[in-house]
Design goal:
- The chain has 122 residues and is of the alpha+beta class.
- The protein has two domains: 40 residues, no CATH class; 81 residues, no CATH class.
- It has two helices and two strands, in the order H-E-E-H.
- The chain has a two-stranded antiparallel sheet.
- Strand 1 and strand 2 form a beta hairpin.
- The protein starts with a helix and ends in a 16-residue tail after the last helix.
- The structure holds flavin-adenine dinucleotide.
- The site of flavin-adenine dinucleotide has 9 residues, from helix 2.
Length: 122
């Protein structure tokens, strides 16, 4: 612990983080009170995945065939993707939710709707 603090203070004094190349070093550790946290471990706290979908966000069978009338988006329709960075899950949910909605609206499988004149979906 003492050697870690001394090493950090040396790095701060010369303005270079020799271990992790952090750019904002603060003022070093010199005045108490001090609080120690740890040891810390990294854990994966979620399981990405979701149903398999095709390029129209239609849910597919294990054979890759689209299931008529069934679309998925967001975490439900993540298609097995592992999204490893900040904002990608929400980005996926918003973008592919919108795309899935378009495909639903344009689908020929919608038996509950009849075409309306002068309305286009783009
Ligand atoms: C703690 C935590 C932190 C996260 N941080 C980030 C982050 O920083 N960046 C990022 O990109 N992603 C983050 N995520 C992941 C991200 O929030 C999700 O991947 C994303 O919200 C999924 O969107 P969704 O629309 O698929 O599902 P949800 O956001 O879960 O929306 C589903 C909605 O459906 C509603 N619902 C469920 N059942 C029914 C029903 N029967 N009838 C009507 N409504 C129903 C629910 O109430 C909910 O509002 C985080 C997730 C968690 C849990």
């Amino acid at each position: 612990m003492r050697s870690t603090v001394e090493e950090w203070n040396r790095d701060v004094a010369v303005g270079t983080d020799t271990r992790f190349d952090r750019q904002h070093l603060g003022g070093g550790i010199s005045e108490g009170p001090f609080y120690a946290l740890g040891p810390m471990n990294a854990f994966i706290t979620l399981a990405d995945g979701g149903l398999a979908v095709d390029t129209q966000l239609r849910v597919t069978t294990a054979d890759g065939e689209a299931i008529p009338g069934l679309w998925a988006a967001g975490s439900t329709g993540q298609g097995g993707l592992q999204l490893l960075n900040h904002g990608l899950h929400i980005g996926w949910a918003m973008v592919f939710g919108r795309l899935a909605g378009r495909h639903v609206a344009q689908s020929q499988n919608r038996l509950d709707l009849s075409p309306t004149e002068h309305v286009t979906v783009s």
